[in-house]
Amino acid sequence: MTSAKQPLLELKNVTTVVNDHTPAAKAILKQLNLKIYAGDFITVLGPNGAGKSTFFNSIAGTLPIKSGQILLQGKNITHLSVEKRAKFISRVFQDPKMGTAPRMTVAENLLLATKRGQIRGLKLRGLKAQLPRLHSLAASMNNGLVDRMQTATENLSGGQRQALSFLMATIQQPELLLLDEHTAALDPKTSAQLMQQTNERILQEKLTCLMITHHLDDALRYGNRLLVLDDGKIVFDVRDQQKQQLTKQKLLEFFGDIE
Ligand SMILES: Nc1ncnc2c1ncn2[C@@H]1O[C@H](COP(=O)(O)OP(=O)(O)OP(=O)(O)O)[C@@H](O)[C@H]1O
């Protein structure tokens, strides 16, 4: 029974306010409660402006929460800095330019990611010894990234760059992976390919993941649990068999034309 286990991540009554203490103050997350368990691969749907990115910003610490608590494996991380949370929480954004250092090569970026949280990482020691592992990771993305290991990241295609961002975010097996529409900027074929590699890696590494998407098909096909966020609250939460039985039609009926 999942209810008896300690959640990997728990949000307790989380309220997040933007422009706090100004006349433009607005609550975006509204007393949100959620328990996420190790191994959950959760797809997150919701209309534009529902608060999905704010939800991720609150978990990652890029936006302070106004009230409530965030617990990671029972530890209160509500006031932990973004940098400290980055040791446990990885994130991939929609924009291919965001996850990588543009002037550094693919191999250097990957190596940097293996040393996340260590100061000496910046010196990139040990590149040679790590190369076989980095090569096989790049090859696993099946998109030519492995042939461009010595290429500066800024010269990659958007799909290769997102695949690299994804690898960098998962190379150290984060306790929690946040995918913020990470395939949305890619063409349909590239997006589908990255989605498939994403799924394989998450299952293989048994990662715990929250993935925001506007694609109902992806939200239904991937993961063991599906959430719908609307107006700063979780309004729908299904898992396992209930999720498998969900159809696109039922989802559309539930919250209108989200796509
Ligand atoms: N820093 C901010 N300042 C002011 N308003 C903000 C800020 N961040 C978010 N908002 C507002 O909060 C609401 C929720 O935004 P958020 O980006 O979390 O929604 P979303 O569900 O991710 O939307 P989308 O699907 O369009 O990406 C929106 O109305 C947005 O304009």
UniProtKB/TrEMBL annotation:
One Pfam family linked to the record: ABC_tran
GO molecular function, one term: ATP hydrolysis activity
Protein origin, superkingdom: Bacteria
Keyword Acyltransferase attributed: no
Domain ABC transporter: 9-256
PROSITE patterns noted in UniProt: ABC_TRANSPORTER_1 (PS00211), ABC_TRANSPORTER_2 (PS50893)
Alphabetic keyword roster: ATP-binding, Nucleotide-binding
One annotated Gene Ontology cellular component of this protein: plasma membrane
Protein name in UniProt: ABC superfamily ATP binding cassette transporter, ABC protein
